[in-house]
Inverse folding.
């Protein structure tokens, strides 16, 4: 059974950056290097997985919980939680929006990283719209959200875990809307608005992905649909190098933002033109 642990570590409960994704290991694949880089700069980062991975060909939801915990430590995130939305059935419903609103109000991120809004997997693009609509709702002053989750929430990992005790935990569920939403676009062949240099984080980010041993260790189950580990390494590296090349660095992760970029000093705009 999924544990019902509460996990808050590094003290306090608010986050600077929260990355939301449909499945455990999506964040590791699309923006794990950026999260690690921000954590190394002193920002409090977190991951919200919408599902627990019970439909995966390899391993169980419990395997994935343990592996997600290991990956969270490698990426130095201060918070990780998995909601109980069914794997393979991420739907943009009022109930699911409210589950995310609760987390946004609780963790109060300034920056929200969502999956890109188009993709092959319905869970991915639905998670994008669901996350956006939840971020909007989270800021509505008249939308009341109770402390107590209406459905079980599994929370994994942490440098300091403690048993859940909602009665004694002060949670501030007043309205909150992230200032900035950026879309992790690695799963989709679109031109990014910007890339984040993860040259120094690339190896750790790859280790974070490989923490999902039930998924990525070479094995019989699913061998027809899963590439071998050496091939995964080559693909991950090729993608990071491609986006790195666009930014003039070795490895990078791509993002799309819907807003225009604002520049104060044109002398400091990075990336060579010619
Ligand atoms: Zn996924």
């Amino acid at each position: 059974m999924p544990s019902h642990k509460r996990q808050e570590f590094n003290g306090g409960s608010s986050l600077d950056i929260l990355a939301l994704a449909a499945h455990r290991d999506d964040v590791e694949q699309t923006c794990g290097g950026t999260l690690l880089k921000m954590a190394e700069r002193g920002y409090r980062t977190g991951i919200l997985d919408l599902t627990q991975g019970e439909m995966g060909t390899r391993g169980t939801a419990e395997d994935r919980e343990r592996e997600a915990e290991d990956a969270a430590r490698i990426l130095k995130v201060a918070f990780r939680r998995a909601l109980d939305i069914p794997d393979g059935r991420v739907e943009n419903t009022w109930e699911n929006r409210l589950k995310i609103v609760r987390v946004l109000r609780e963790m109060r991120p300034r920056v929200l990283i969502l999956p890109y809004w188009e993709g092959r997997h319905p869970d991915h693009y639905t998670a994008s719209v669901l996350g956006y609509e939840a971020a909007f709702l989270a800021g509505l002053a008249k939308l009341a959200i109770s402390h107590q989750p209406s459905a079980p929430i599994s929370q994994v990992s942490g440098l300091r875990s403690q048993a859940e005790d909602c009665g004694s935990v002060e949670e501030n569920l007043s309205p909150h809307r992230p200032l900035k939403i950026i879309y992790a676009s690695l799963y989709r062949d679109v031109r990014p608005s910007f890339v984040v240099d993860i040259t120094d984080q690339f190896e750790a980010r790859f280790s974070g992905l490989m923490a999902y041993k039930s998924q990525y260790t070479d094995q019989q189950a699913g061998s027809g649909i899963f590439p071998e580990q050496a091939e995964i390494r080559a693909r991950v590296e090729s993608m990071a190098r491609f986006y790195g090349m666009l930014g003039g660095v070795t490895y990078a992760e791509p993002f799309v933002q819907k807003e225009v970029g604002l520049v104060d000093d044109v002398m400091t705009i990075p990336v060579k033109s010619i």
Q: What stands out?
A: Residues 229-247 form the longest helix (19 residues). Residues 92 and 130 are 5 Å apart (CA to CA). The pocket of zinc ion is lined by residues 22-23, 26, 121, 124 (CB under 6 Å). The radius of gyration is 18 Å.
